[in-house]
Amino acid sequence: MTIQRISPKTGLILGAFVLLAGFTLLNVRKLFTKEPIPQTVNALSVEPITVQPADSYTVSRVYTGEVAAGRTSELGFEQRGKLVEIRVDRGNFVNKGQPLAQLDTSRLEVQRSQRVAQRDRALAQLAELQNGSRQEDIAAAQATVKNLEKQLELQRLRQQRREFLYTEGAISREDRDIITFGADALEEQLSVAKSQLEELQTGTRPEQIAAQQAVLQEISASIVDLDIAIKKNTIFAPFSGVIADRRLDEGTIVEAGQVVLRLIEQFQAEVEIGLPADVVADLRLGQSQSISIAGNYYNANVKAISPEVDPNTRTQTLVFRLNGVSNNTIVPEQLAEVEITRTIPTSGFLVPFTALVQG
Known about the structure:
Layout: H1 8-32, E1 52-67, E2 72-76, E3 81-86, E4 93-94, E5 99-103, H2 106-131, H3 135-168, H4 173-202, H5 206-231, E6 234-236, E7 241-246, E8 253-254, E9 259-265, E10 270-275, H6 277-280, E11 288-293, E12 296-305, E13 316-322, E14 335-350
Antiparallel strand pairs: 1-10, 1-14, 2-9, 3-5, 3-8, 4-7, 5-6, 7-9, 10-13, 11-12, 11-14, 12-13
């Protein structure tokens, strides 16, 4: 076997080529190889708590309502007449029963005066019937009876004489009849006078007293009717409140039912709020609650609970009566809020809200 020797020059060239190839390969590996980037870990600092089991939890919800408005009445007269006086104006405060306006009652007053006079006369007649006849009246009636008896006695004597003369033919039949008819008339007058005397002596009959009492009651009833008519010519405040509107002035002829004044009731510090039926079931009449109105809180009590559920809102209306609230503090139809806190029975664990994160 023959071994060929490499010349020194050729060896140097070959060595240089090997070194260059190795250096190139090393740079290529460094180019395609990424060094790992160190990561910084941010540790979250927390405070551990012990979770407690619970058999219930509380929920608070706010419900909105409004301050209740008072009663409103449009006032007028029940009958037609001339308006002669209005004693109030817009904005005036009035008390219940206070007279506000009046129609002309002069004609009714005259009629009442006439009825009063008739009543007084009937009352005097009733007193006379109840007290009986006076002795003077009885004596006068007795004298009348005696006078008629004497006249009748004289007339009978004349009749007998005329009858004798007629039999003898001395007088005509007409002359005899005149005396006869005169005697009969006197006899009837005597009968009436005796009846009147007997009535005076025996006193007034109960039927007469009862009839006179009925007359007196009828007149008294007509006076009461006139008093009612006169009263109806005056408008009285049906409740305490403020005059909101005055629509007519004095001198106007007012028709029956025509509105003269508009009255708004003195403000009642009450709030109406609709609550779900399940919430209402936990409340009781008289229960205390805090009501918020315009950022202010007022103590209130449950005054009334509606027994029906509103078909539109599916709620029951509760009326809260505010305590210690003046009329100028709040006004009707202001928004009002009540916060109701309820306890819900259920099993679970209680954790603070800060322990919850969005996920």
